[in-house]
Amino acid sequence: MDNGLLEVQQVTSGRLKGVHLSILSDEDAGKLSAMVVGTVNEVSDAALGLPTSNATECTTCGAKNSRDCEGHYGLIKFPYTILNPYFMSEVAQILNKICPGCKSLRQSKIKNDHSASSHQPRKCRYCTGQSRAGYPKMKFKVSTKDVFAKSAIIAEVSEALVSKSSYGCLASDYWDILPKDSAQDHSSQPPNKRVLLPAQVYEILKDVSPKDLERFFKRKNLIFLNSLLLTPNSARVREFGQRITVDETTKVYRKLFDFRGTPNELSARVLERYKLSKIRSEKLSNLQKAYEKQAGNDSASSSSGLKNIKELLLGKRTDHSFRMVVVGDPRVKVHEIGVPFQVAENLLMNDHVNEWNWEKLMPCCDYMLHRRGNFSALRDGQRRTIWFKDMLRAGDSIRRPLIDGDIVLINRPPSIHQHSLIALSVKILPINSVLSINPLICSPLKGDFDGDCLHGYVPQSLNTRIELNELVSLKNQLANGQNGRNLLALGQDSLTAAYLSLQDGVLLNKAKMQQLQMFCSCMPMLPAVIKSESGARFWTGKQLFSLLLPRDFEFTSACNDVYIRQGELVSSSHGSSWLNDNSGNLFECLLRHCKDRALEFLGSGQEVLCEWLSMRGLTVSLSDLYMSHDSKSHMNLLDEISCGLREAERLSKASLLMVGCNQDFLVDCSEESDYMENFLKERILIAQQTVPELFHASLSAAKAVFRDMQSLAYKYSDSGNSFIAMLKSGSKGNLQKLFQHSMCVGLQHSLAPLSFSVPRHLSCASWNYQKNLPDLQTSHGYIPCTMIGNSFSAGLNPQECFVLSLTTRDGSFGGNADIPGTLNRRLMFFMRDLVTGYDDTVRSCYGNQVIQFHYCSEEMNATNVDGRMGGHPVGSTAACAITEVLYSALDQPISVLEPSPMLNLKKVLECGVKKSTGSKSASLFLSRRLRRWANGSEYGALEVKNHLECLPFSDIVSEIRICYSKKTNSGTSVSPWACHFHVKKEVANKRRLTLRSIINALRLNNKLNGAKSKFDLPKLHITSEVCSEADTHTDSTICISAALTESIHNIPDVDILRDMIIPALLQTVVKGFLEFKKVDILWKEGSNCSKFPRCPSGEIFLRVVMSEYCERTKFWSTLIDKCLVLRNIIDWERSHPDVLLDYCEAYGIDVAWQYFVTTLHAAISDTGKSILPEHLVVTANCLSATGEFAPLNSRGLAHQRKETDTYAPFSQACFLNPSDCFIKAAKVEQIDGLKGSLEALAWGQTPSIGTGSQFDLLYKGKGHEPAERTDVYSLLSTHVASDKTNAKVKPHDRKSIASYHFNSKEQKISLHKMLAQHFTVVGIQKVSRKLKRILKEYPVNRLLNEEDRSTAMMALKFHPKLQDKYGSGILDIKVGRHPEHKENCFFLVRTDGTEEDFSYHKCINHALEMISPDKAKTHQPKNNKVAPNPAVIVE
């Protein structure tokens, strides 16, 4: 990897300010092309770059491999001029704006125009649109896919206008305004339609005013095309070994040659080429479109284009990274990461040499010299080969291996939250193939040790290392950016040890206390509390825990009975919630008290507690699953479980009978009909699996009993049960799983509907009995719900195993598993460029627009102080915080009968999406004055529900009969056939209905609510006379009869009653309003009422659902009008529509903004997570920056950018449909200023966040001008103790080698020391090969450059006759021709002008004799003469 230090190329530097998007014209294509392609064989010509099948060298640039040649463009010239396929719609628009006869703008389209309308002829037949004379208006449009693939313009006249002509057809000269073309055949076309050629379009547009054309085209030369740019071979040709393949683009290019068709057919082929763009979305099948529509993913349709955008523009490759499996190691510090030594030596870090880091770099230099013999360094932009350490100079840049203490950036994908990026310190470990981290940092990384991988990135610049250390190091991320609590806490074994050590009766003798105190942070030993008769002293576990706390630390947790005074744990309860990640826990208080020093407490605390646990011992085995080893106690446990199961079943049945339609079962069921009673009970249990109300009632009752049963684990478990210890400490597992394994699996219900039901008792008899029951008709399927009485340790029967596999199967999320990722991507595109300014405002990087005037208000009291720094990416942190909540909601599976917190949060975030379908709802809150009376709110809610809810006639009818009446008067027109509707009086009274109100409603709504009926119903005679068909139920039943007063021809009256009258009357609304489908009475949790202390913590409210008969835009106003009679019992200040857009329209953006923040906070709380309020405020301000809430999709982003006058086509293209976005921006020639972070990173710029954020210079006083730029090498050299600029970093006190004769004893000792310290056999052999290469590459009499000269000078020091060769002094070295041997060799140029040669073989051989004499023998020159290879010549 050291080969990366190549010579720096001197190129012109500049700053990229923007990207100008434009459509390529013929002139631009000609300038870019390297050749004009004239034949099919030249499509892959060698002049277009490599690879190619007919050449091994690029004929344009001379490159011999594809790595050195990026390719060259070609140009294909067309035989015809065609229309630009990108501007087909614009051409059709401007043709419709002008008159084809006089070429002037139509007055009906553009008024008050001064360019052409002033001289428009008044008698133009096409302008006036004389339909009767045979000259109706002509309309232009783009051809369909079947006609030249949407690449031609069609002129068409409406058939309705043609029919208005006096002759019923167009005038004979109607199409004469179009130029004639002999090759064009109109016989196959309708007389009212013409397909225009590009030349005909040109004839119409050539006389149009240029000012009019500028309204549609930025440049007129873009309308027509005469050529097409041919992409290089590198973009179309692929090389697989010796095989060359071409893609579909090359095949389309070949179709353009030897073309014999019409210009429109040529346009279709050019359009086919444009559609083969890599950033264009692929066409999806109908099945894929249906899936995307169901999933609500608008970005999947362009997934192929976005993938290529990511690979071509967004993806960045780096050689300074690693990816490995991670394991846990508590011996590694919390802020460290253990890296295998084999990996560390191959990961190189760029470092500059200076006086302060020389001692640290010495071991690295020794290692690289020992391993490779030399290494490279950059000095003044040139590469230098370093053979020994003394060759280094201040300011040199070297690439060294990783060492202890280096900082690396760690990422555990996917990066769904802020703390998934952490900078850790490197610890080199003698291990292989895995990374090691402390188990305490698993929480921020959201990982574990079951095969998870970590990605690591090695920073290469000093600025990067400083930013990582100051921004994302672990000590600066101790506060959770999502909720402001502590990010780290004790966990796993350390948390279990903390819980066990704080138990009463834990004592430690002096030896153990001293052993554990070694791991503490220099705290004195507390006085012993117990002294035995033998004189031994003991300390408690609380004292051991106190040694870990600061001396001035105070902490109180009253609910856990924990008190810490002056750093000493005074008392603690048996629980450990104050040690877990709860609000107000110990570590959160430590973080506020001692900031980053809390990390020291965690590190030392883990070491002490794990050491104590290893002394005590902790084993987990299957025996811990048996709560009690005493047989009698175990039998009592089984009896209590059996009683609990019976109690759960009894309460579940009772709850089912108390729900709505089943309440009458207790009254109607007779004592004698035992079989009927069992049959009805079984049917109710089956109906429980289909009706949501029954399901919830049964589930709630059973869950309450099982919660009480789970507490038996604590009652019957032994004191030494390891499972119970871990459960109480909160380190591992949960009580429900232990209950299922040890005592009872319990209640199980499926989350997805099935096609069959499950019996209550899982036995063969129950299954056989249920098969004989008739099936219930249900459209939603069954939700199995049953109880499993056995435990996993006792074993399950086949029926129980089958039901367990159904209720615990995967796929509970269905098509919603991608919701968190999709919303995360959308939120990031909206919010990633929101940063805090230095004035504490929140601004957008696009135009520095103010989104929020103050980031963190005093009421928020946020603990995240980083948000107050200028440039802090508060938008990204807010999006990550919400995304983390969405991913955590995946742990709560989606059920068809229970609301999903994740879907509710998704609904809130997408509240700005305007929907034309679907129902709306509104929330009505009751007046607080109703609380003065007992159950006042309940009665008020029922009153509102009865007033608004739509009650159809079918809900109260118990029986329908069609009867023939014998008492029919011959003088009346009433039909003898009548339908009788029987209504129970009890039901009518319960619904507060009277007979007269029902009859009046049926008479007024004679047209089936007037909405869906496509025909008028016949007139009816509706009466409530005494019905003889009511039989014995006359006293408890009322009858309403309806008879026809007129008949329909050829249709029997019975058929009319059965097929028309009965369905119509059953849907008649007898109470409430047709606009409201349903009214639910719900409960909302809230704070306690201060005025009425005994009122509950919450209130009743009503949810009104709109029906399909209500107009969507008038739902809220209609609801207000219908509630005028109840206005005194409804609190209209708090009542609101549930759709945010309606809320905004009704009350304004300010009230809607507050409602959005409230509902977003409530939706997040439903998931069980908390979030900082500043994240909610930033999200609300971002989505409502334009004065209305933007939809969280691509249209919303585009609309928001348009309203704020900021155009970012590159960012918009990366969001959705990249090809369409780029084409749209190129048509209007937009300039992307690369202001966003996404664009900046893609184009190699510094994003405007963090240290690269913008700021305003408010004051500039004299005397504070910025200093001049200083060269980094000169700056580093000034800090080194040396007189020369290029002085050595650490000069050694030694005498010059050249000042002594080689045969002197002192010189030999100096050389031996030098060789032993700086050189190896491999290094000397590399020097020999390099000198040989220099002789071959340099021409005669050419002086060596600085690097090669230093190599030759280093070899010269080992010459046996160094003093003779040195002479008066060496001035330079060159390559010359030896006069005797006639071969190239080195010459030393002396200071006195003489030259002398020397054999570099003698230097190498003598150096090898000092280190390895065996190697020197193989390097001995022949015949003891001048070496046959070139020798070094000294001048």
General description of the model:
- The chain starts with 18 loop residues before the first strand and ends with a strand.
- The strands form 14 sheets. It has a six-stranded mixed beta barrel with strand order 10-18-11-17-16-19. A five-stranded antiparallel beta sheet has the order 42-43-44-45-46, covered by helices on one side.
- Mean pLDDT is 79; it is low at 1-9, 108-121, 287-301, 859-867, 1008-1012, 1276-1303 and 1422-1435.
- Helix content is 35%, strand content 16%.
- The chain is flat.
- It is an alpha+beta fold and 1435 residues long.
- It has 50 helices and 46 strands.
- It has nine domains: 21-80 and 229-274, no CATH class; 86-211, no CATH class; 316-476, Beta Barrel (Barwin-like endoglucanases), CATH 2.40.40; 492-618, RNA polymerase Rpb1, domain 3 (Enzyme I, Chain A, domain 2, Orthogonal Bundle), CATH 1.10.274; 624-809, Topoisomerase I, Chain A, domain 4; 816-916 and 1151-1251, no CATH class; 921-946 and 1076-1138; 951-1071, 2-Layer Sandwich (Gyrase A, domain 2), CATH 3.30.1360; and more.
- The longest helix is centred in the middle third of the chain and has 27 residues, at 631-657.
